[in-house]
Amino acid sequence: MINIKTKLPEWGTSIFTIMSRMAVEHNAINLAQGFPDFNCDQELLELVSYFQNKGFNQYAPMQGVPNLRKAISEKINKIYGKHYDFDKEITVTAGATQALYTAITSVVKQGDEVILFEPAYDSYVPDILSNGGIPVYIPLNIKNYSYDWELIQNKISDKTKAIILNSPHNPTGSLISKDDIEQLEKLTRETEILIISDEVYEHITFDGEKHISLASSEELSKRTFVISSFGKTYHTTGWKMGYCAAPENLTKEFRKMHQFIVFSTNTPIQHAYAEFMKHEDRYLSLGKFYQQKRDVFINEIKSSKFKLKPCRGTYFQLLDYSTISNKSDIEFSEYLTKEMGVAVIPLSPFYESKESQSLIRICFAKTDEVLKEAAAKLEKL
Ligand code: GLN
Known about the structure:
CATH superfamily of the largest domain: Type I PLP-dependent aspartate aminotransferase-like (Major domain)
Largest sheet: 7 strands, mixed
CATH topology of the largest domain: Aspartate Aminotransferase, domain 2
CATH architecture of the largest domain: 3-Layer(aba) Sandwich
Number of strands: 13
Bound molecules: glutamine
Strand content: 5-15%
Oligomer: single chain
Structural class: alpha/beta
Radius of gyration: 21 Å
């Protein structure tokens, strides 16, 4: 057997795959991996078929079809007040996962440090490591998952290449604030530090709060790759489509890599999104849509022993089970899946230490019936 020296020695299969597989094996309700259990809009499906039948079935331009890049540029301008040149500053990608990998790969070299915040989405660290970068982990404050700017300042070094941010935040549902943006402006001013801003849940915020995009800071947008995903916004996670908006000099480097990673992405789907996005209420109403789902779940589970963390955005809710069990979060998640029929995600895989904190994540992008059925099972504990 050929001996391959692995680039990712500590990595196995992602927790999302593991828990989804376990849900299927044990016929459990899957509140684990983040995806809706309902279909996308019929009109979007018809638009995809329309463009397929019209013959839009060959390679799209490497950077994405112009109509879609224009629609993205207009959307960002309208809601965040920042103009990105659709030709030079927006690239359509195969989901946010590819955009994140491409952005990191285009700037991170051997020995560069990249700051990220824990709990952290699972793809950031492998992206850094596979480029020879060094992840620098900073915990979000345990109480409300806010940023400790003094600690961040102390972690900056002359090797700091980039900072990865994620707001609305998976898995905690916390949001970046205006003050955070000001602190970040101060911290990076006069430096060459880049920012990779994962904003895939940009349209899913609750209780009147608005997402603050890094695009809305004139100063920070000059050093930022803003990344989003159509999968989250249009209930189409399986289509794997997203985009990256970044200033021309960053986009130039991004596209050098992009062309050799995927070259281009699905043509008829790009045309369909470009049409579908014209009605802004389709994304502007998403917060209200998911707030109702969050509240159905919260209401159904309120007399249980679980303690709920505040959820201000995303379609994830953290549950504290410390008064129910002293199992580790991995054991408890397995128990819920196998014995109680509800698959969830343990929080420890989002930390380098992998230490359990008696917290699990559920995804409420599910029909109300499924949410009620799952909550009824969890209430029994
Ligand atoms: N982002 C989704 C989640 O957090 C999962 C995507 C994946 O499985 N890679 O559940």
